[in-house]
Amino acid sequence: MIDKLKKDNFLFGFTVGLASTVVSAIVLLTGLFLFSMTFNDNPKLFLFSFVAPIFLMRWYFKTENIKSARGVLIVIILGLLSLFAYLYSIGLVTTTKL
Known about the structure:
The protein is mainly alpha-helical.
């Protein structure tokens, strides 16, 4: 099973990173559903959905699969940017004047 994850390919890393992020988000949504909460109650919890791809990226860098690690890194960056844009649009991330 682990031999299948040792491919050094950008598209493979992107796909695995996206899949791990989606699975983590589904687990978080299930947890929210069990506690009778919605996504808008605390959307900052979805920052935890990036824990799995961060560990995956670290493993790819450690095993020197640089192309796959870059694919996972792109997923993390795009996902975090989109989550922060959503948090900003609903007013949870505010700017302050210095």
